[in-house]
Write a structure and sequence with these properties.
Strand 1 and strand 2 form a beta hairpin. This protein has one domain: Leucine Aminopeptidase, subunit E, domain 1, CATH 3.40.220.10. A 7-stranded mixed β-sheet has the order 1-2-7-6-3-5-4, with helices on both faces. It is globular and about 40 Å long. Helix 3 runs parallel beside helix 4. Helices cover 38% and strands 20% of the residues. It is α/β, with parallel strands linked by helices. Bound molecules: adenosine-5'-diphosphate.
Length: 177
């Protein structure tokens, strides 16, 4: 299913349910860990679909701090680029988790703008193994995306890709509110 937002920034936002590795966009975002050497969840799916060259390139980068992002090629993915970002592990909300998640989105959009990327797809960063509450994460994602779409008007489309219906509901609420 597809949910298209209404209003100025959300004209460029779509929420879809599916597998991010299948999307033919300029860049997909990976919810990576600080080592950037693959892992479970969406990270594992992206590495499996992109092939071993992705891991090789990631090894050369040498890691990424929480809240920052790094770009690689997409190799066997339909997407030309992968922007890897490291979300915070949720541990109650008092360890700057919301700020760090916002910083992930800002870092990804900055890199996207530098590379001339016009279409990009995000998974629900930090809401899987890292346990960030989905409603809170979706509201940060929408807020930062709206701010970035104002700052970088050349970006044409942002997809939020959900694996499950809880995630879809969270984004629907965030886009409506
Ligand atoms: P994190 O460690 O940042 O929490 P996870 O990969 O565990 O990252 O989960 C982030 C989100 O990505 C979760 O909502 C999970 O359901 C979702 N996810 C897992 N695999 C895929 C995929 N192939 N495409 C899109 N989303 C996915």
């Amino acid at each position: 299913m597809t949910v298209t937002g209404s209003g100025t920034c959300s004209d460029k936002i779509e929420v879809i349910q599916g597998d991010i590795t299948a999307l033919d966009v300029d860049a997909i975002v990976n919810a990576a860990n600080t080592r950037l050497l693959g892992g479970g969840g969406v990270d594992g799916a992206i590495h499996r679909a992109a092939g071993p060259e992705l891991l090789e390139e990631c090894r050369g980068i040498g890691g990424c701090p929480t809240g920052e992002a790094r770009i690689t090629r997409g190799y066997r993915l339909p997407a030309r680029w992968v922007i890897h970002t490291v979300g915070p592990v949720w541990s109650g909300g008092k360890r700057r988790e919301p700020e760090l998640l916002a910083s992930c989105y800002r870092s990804v959009f900055q890199i996207a703008s530098e590379k001339g990327i016009k279409t990009l797809a995000f998974p629900a960063i930090s809401t899987g193994a890292y346990r960030f509450p989905p409603d809170h994460a979706a509201s940060i994602a929408v807020q930062e995306t709206c701010a970035a779409l104002e700052r970088y008007p050349e970006i044409e489309k942002v997809l939020f890709v959900c694996f499950d219906s809880r995630c879809l509901d969270a984004y629907k609420k965030a886009l409506a509110g």
